[in-house]
Amino acid sequence: MNIQQRPPFKAGDYKSDLTPVWCPGCGDFHVLLSVTKALAELGTPPENVAVISGIGCSSRIPAYTNCYGFHGVHGRSLALGAGLKVARPDLTVMVMSGDGDGFSIGGNHFLHACRRNVDMTYIVMDNRVYGMTKGQPSPTTEPDWDSALSPGGTGLSPFHPLVIALASGANFVAREFSGDIKGTTRTIVEAVRHPGFSFVEILSPCVTFRPDERAWKTQTHPAAVEATDDPSRAARRIMTDDGFNVGILYRGRRKPHDTHVKDSAGDPAILEEEFAI
Amino acid sequence: MTGAETTMVIATAGELLAHAYQMELDAQERYSYLAEQMEVHNNIDLAKLFRELARVEGLHASDILQQMKGMDVPQIRPLDYKWPGSESPEALDMGDMHYMMTPRQALLLALKAEQNAFDFFDHLLKATDDPEIKRFAAEFAEEEQEHVELVHKELKRYPEADERPREDMDPPASQE
Q: Global pTM?
């Protein structure tokens, strides 16, 4: 075979031999496919990628990749990821989480990861339910979702991940639907390439506890407007969002947190400037 | 399926082989996933069927690899494949699966994937003027047609009239 162009890797090079134990139909299968395709597209060797997670169905993902991985404690994946990136800035760090792990148990880490703007990619597989613990409402669950474990619904306003990410200083904000593998792959590639903290919410149906989420396949739609680098414009757009717009909302221009130790380390004025939003 | 678009973008026999090879690998992977999922949920008959389909797709992938020898075959990056949709046509949509799938439901998913693969090659066959692309497209379309017929044959074992929904005596959690 005469090879004209040989890209360094294929998606399969990033998959481990372990069989995923997600429920048949789970959107997380699609996310795994998109992540491995994105890494192949980026051409980053698996040994130069670290996939860090917390706890939950989605957080099983490091085991299903052939990259370095760490299945950490509940809600603390961003702290692990940021620490790793600071210590090893040469690595591509991808932090993976779910809506419970990322927005409830790890909610505070989310705010500060956005603010710190360390150069890493945070992917949250949002299924609006705690699947692993059998179907409790999560921070993103609709207030009127009626179930045995939340009779009549919680009545609580859901957490808006994109609004919070934007307001907290994330440098790249996007939403995708897991079933759109090509679109999700493309967005993950852009998220990794974009300097600073990139946040991608992926709507990933839980077909076992939220069979209604199968409808996301038809409910999601491309955002009508292009991504912006103006946070105020992005904020106006997100306030009129129906929750099913997919695509890149915001590409910021903030300088990422400098992970290199500098001579000026310890100078409060320089640190203050560095962390300013 | 938008055959015209497919024809417009696949310009060489080597490029067609690269697409056909990836298509078979994707199909093999999805059938394997499905087989594993059915094993986990003790749906043994379906697991066997999907193992067999995965095996057949793997054989086709090996055949295509042989055909690539001596040809100029481009290496294509994941986002540069020219599929008519978001994924390769023969890849089962993982979102359509369910642990309580009946054999008939599973076979209908497989039928859709095989039919999509046939359509991909058949559109190419009808629209291209390149004799080499035509030859490969005809060969692959014929193979996919055989798969379609195989699935139809299997479907006859599970007529719609006899279908009973599978009941989970210990469901994950009642949400009613």
A: 0.90
